[in-house]
Design brief:
Layout: H1 2-16, H2 20-27, H3 31-39, H4 47-56, H5 61-71, H6 77-81, H7 118-122, H8 125-152, E1 165-167, H9 176-179, H10 200-205, E2 211-215, H11 222-235, E3 243-248, H12 259-270, H13 284-290, E4 294-299, H14 309-317, E5 323-327, H15 329-339, E6 347-351, H16 356-366, E7 371-372, E8 375-376, H17 382-390, H18 398-402, H19 406-417, H20 436-453, H21 456-461, H22 471-487, H23 506-532, H24 537-565, E9 575-577, H25 590-624, H26 631-661, E10 663-665, H27 674-715, H28 722-743, H29 746-760, H30 768-777, E11 781-784, E12 787-790, H31 793-806, E13 810-811, E14 821-822
Parallel strand pairs: 2-5, 2-6, 3-4, 4-5
Antiparallel strand pairs: 1-6, 7-8, 9-10, 11-12, 13-14
Helix pairs in contact: 1-3, 1-5, 8-11, 12-13, 14-15, 16-17, 19-20, 20-22, 22-31, 23-24, 23-28, 24-25, 24-28, 25-26, 26-27, 27-28, 28-29
């Protein structure tokens, strides 16, 4: 219970506004002892010492009861029992600590915070050290990432908008005694949730259960609050504290994926180095979650599919995991009503609207003092503010209500403070904007064109090449991406580069696999023939086409099977190749890894080999007139299909199995951004190609001699000449490797679909990665780990709806050149 006692003492000291030195002067307890107690470095729970600290901190009866409950735990009881009489020292108006009967204290397993480091209790020292190091590394990366994101969102320009809150309705929170995890019979005086944006982490520390629900309407500042919470929590984090990690709940299907597995999957996606194995064999991501070293900040409960919210709430209630949950109030209230209980042990706060004084202090300072017609830039908001003050008593004034959330204020700032050709006075036009919806749609519709028109001259002056400056085309491309997200299961928010190709129909994706694989194998056959000249030109062209077609169909069938029974989008590789003997992290099982990869690749290689045998039979029919219906031809073709299938399958299985053993996790910074993950996957695929081509060539060439030697007895005489084996090996190695890279890797699918097909059809620009990065820099998108998200779900839905409304009349320009055309009716 050392960590629990230290947590309580730190909270009391910070609430009193004392430093450790000041507490020493008040209590007479040395700074060294205070520091050891607060950090968990001491197991000396002397009641006299703790009483002195409680008296100096002016702890009330409830705080003393919590300290006593902590000291009564089994882990602390031995030290307390040997520390002298329980009475301690008494001062006026305060009662000394007394240790209650252990039967009246909840069992340690029921307290989430007490299980923050179970690895320390049950794991070995090596694993504990590795987990502590991994948690520290994760905390450092998350701090760096969210600091950059907060700066990118310009939260502090010119100053952060005030985010205030009030206690959430009692019907949406648990009992105060449950929130504070008090023993039976204890009475709580309530949980103090007062504070502001700068103290949200401190407010959370007052909640002993570690469970908090943040409610607010759309655009009320929940995301900004979660970012500030994460950064402030990390600033005060001790080495064994939980690391707050933001997870977007919109991608979670509680009926299909357990909460633990979902958390682990997202950790691995955003931090691929956590795939490294611990001594117990689990990944670092799983070990961190299981050891209680991750504090989930679950953002966007309302973004879970409507029919799954009650199930999600029930799943969360089945756990004692400390967490922070954000949601719109209405959606959360519906889930509570449906399940009949709120989030157990959870306190709740609800964000309040901004006031007219907040607007008057903020908006004029966002308009820089540049000339704007008859009045300066700083006075551009004066007529609007005067108009709002004139209707200050009318709570239902549309503009007043709209500009009461940070999201709409930021949109208004972007459209009017940062664009010299726009005048916010138009927002007061009641005929044009009769209600809140009209105003919000106007601000949402104007955001993207505004950010793509502004600062062109400034950017050009930097000497950097300008791209995607046409607002209409940029809006179309972004609308297509938003529509793509709406098509995914559960109306996803995560815009992952490896899933963009899934916006195409399955038939289109399969056709791309067939065509790209056929071209790879056909080109390999033609290149080998140019060098070796085993066939005349015409026959070589025919053979290349036949083998390419057979390989394309084979790869297409395998791809279809994987899509049907596996995944619709191939995930990016979270590994890199290493030199033999290099350290890959504890817990690897080379034999199991090899066997799993060998078994997965063997069927695909067999299908490709069988397809090549069929192509050879077709070649003999077309050029030598050998009938396909002859019994001997049929038997020979079947034997060739079996032999070549085994040669290709076993050879590919061996090579891919060995390569799996040589894989190691990516380093900690390789997936800090979507662009970083894309670059690391491109490098990984290219290295794989360089290794696979010669390895497959040799495996097929020499493996053919071994397999034909083994099968020659049962199947009859088999001819496998070394020269022919090398030709087939080079063809299979070069063509098969390139076909695999384009058909079964995330980067290959991105290259074929997002870099070729979608730009050809005008749905994306020629360089989608640069466009996404540019949209992020302009503030349209935000980065959440390895994926992008639209700045707000409201903007995403608006763009998706715009795309659906206009796609029947929109004729996009090919290859991103020229202006888009609108088809006119005759």
């Amino acid at each position: 219970m050392t960590d629990q006692l230290g947590l309580l003492l730190r909270r009391l000291r910070k609430r009193s506004g004392l430093t450790q030195e000041q507490l020493e002067a008040r209590s007479g307890v040395s700074v060294r002892t205070i520091r050891r107690l607060e950090t968990g470095g001491s197991s000396d729970h002397r009641l006299g010492t703790v009483n002195l600290l409680a008296d100096a901190l002016e702890a009330g009866p409830e705080d003393r009861q919590r300290l006593a409950a902590t000291l009564a735990s089994p882990a602390a009881a031995p030290a307390a029992a040997n520390s002298g009489p329980p009475g301690g020292l008494a001062v006026p108006h305060s009662a000394p600590l007394s240790v209650p009967d252990s039967a009246s204290v909840p069992a340690p397993a029921s307290r989430p915070e007490e299980r923050s480091t179970p690895a320390a209790l049950h794991g070995d020292l090596t694993e504990l050290t590795e987990l502590t190091s991994a948690a520290t590394e994760l905390a450092r990366e998350i701090r760096r990432r969210w600091r950059r994101e907060e700066e990118h969102r310009r939260v502090h320009d010119p100053f952060p908008l005030p985010v205030r809150w009030q206690d959430a309705p009692a019907s949406l929170t648990d009992h105060s005694e449950n929130i504070q995890r008090l023993p039976p019979g204890a009475i709580s005086g309530g949980v103090d949730l007062s504070g502001d944006l700068g103290s949200v982490a401190e407010v959370y520390r007052r909640i002993l259960s570690g469970r908090l629900v943040v409610l607010g309407r759309a655009g009320s500042g929940k995301s900004v609050l979660t970012i500030r919470f994460v950064l402030d929590h990390l600033e005060a984090r001790a080495p064994d504290d939980r690391v707050p990690v933001i997870f977007s709940l919109g991608s979670w299907d509680p009926t299909a994926v357990a909460l633990r597995d979902w958390l682990i999957d997202l950790l691995v996606r955003d931090h691929p180095h956590l795939t490294r194995r611990t001594p117990s064999g689990s990944t670092l991501a799983a070990a961190l979650v299981d050891a209680g070293l991750v504090l989930p900040v679950l953002d966007g409960f309302d973004e879970i599919a409507e029919g799954l919210r009650s199930t999600a709430l029930e799943t969360l209630n089945d756990t004692s995991l400390p967490l922070v949950l954000t949601s719109r109030r209405g959606e959360f209230a519906e889930a509570v009503a449906e399940t009949g209980t709120p989030l157990v042990w959870a306190a709740g706060l609800e964000l309040t609207d901004l006031t007219l004084d907040d607007l008057a202090g903020y908006l004029p300072r966002t308009a820089r003092p540049v000339p704007r017609g008859d009045r300066g830039g700083t006075a551009v908001w004066t007529p609007v503010l005067d108009g709002l003050r004139a209707h200050e008593g009318a709570a239902d004034a549309p503009l007043t209500r709209v500009l009461s959330t940070p999201l709409m204020i930021v949109l208004a700032r972007t459209m009017y403070s940062e664009a010299s050709d726009r005048d916010p006075v138009e927002l007061l036009d009641a005929e044009r904007f009769p209600d809140e919806n009209a105003l919000e749609e106007h601000l949402l519709a104007g955001f993207v064109p505004t950010v793509y028109r502004r600062r062109v001259a400034e950017r050009s002056a930097t000497g950097r090449r300008e791209r995607h400056r046409d607002p209409e085309r940029a809006e179309h491309w972004l609308s297509y991406l938003a529509h793509h997200l709406a098509q995914l299961d559960g109306d996803q928010q995560d815009l992952a580069w490896w899933r963009i190709g899934a916006s195409l129909r399955l038939s289109t994706r399969l056709l791309s696999v067939v065509v790209s694989s056929a071209l790879c194998v056909a080109l390999a056959v033609w290149c080998v023939n140019l060098i070796n000249l085993p066939f005349p030109v015409g026959e070589a062209l025919m053979l290349g086409c036949a083998m390419g077609t057979a390989a394309g169909l084979a790869f297409g069938c395998v791809h279809a099977i994987l899509v049907r029974f596996g995944t619709a989008a191939f995930e990016p590789a979270h590994v890199r190749l290493r030199l033999p003997g290099a350290r890959t992290g504890a817990g690897r099982r080379p034999v199991r890894t090899f066997a799993a990869r060998f078994g997965a690749v063997l069927p695909g290689g067999f299908v490709m080999g069988a397809g090549c045998a069929a192509a050879l039979a077709l070649q003999r029919r077309l050029f030598y007139g050998i009938p396909l219906s002859d019994e001997l031809v049929i038997r020979g073709t079947l034997i060739n299909m079996l032999v070549l299938g085994l040669i290709f399958g076993v050879g590919a299985g061996l090579v891919f199995g060995v390569m799996a053993v040589l894989e190691a996790p990516l380093d900690v910074t390789s997936a800090a951004t979507p662009a970083g993950l894309l670059a690391s996957n491109r490098a990984t695929v290219l290295r794989q190609v360089l290794v696979l081509v010669p390895a497959l060539t040799l495996a097929i060439a020499f493996g053919g001699e071994v397999i034909t030697g083994l099968l020659e007895g049962p199947l009859g005489t088999l001819i496998w000449r070394a020269g022919d084996g090398l030709v087939i090996g080079v063809t299979g190695g070069l063509g098969g490797t390139c076909a695999y890279a384009l058909s079964f890797t995330a980067w290959g699918r991105w290259l074929v679909l997002s870099r070729v097909w979608l730009p050809l059809t005008g749905q994306l620009p020629r360089d989608p990665a640069a466009f996404l990065d540019d949209a992020y820099r302009r503030g349209v998108l935000r980065q959440t780990g390895a994926v992008y998200q639209f700045r707000h779900i409201r903007l995403q839905h608006h763009l998706a709806r715009t795309y659906r409304e206009h796609r029947s009349t929109y004729a996009p320009a090919r290859f991103g050149t020229g202006a888009p055309r609108l088809l006119q009716n005759d």
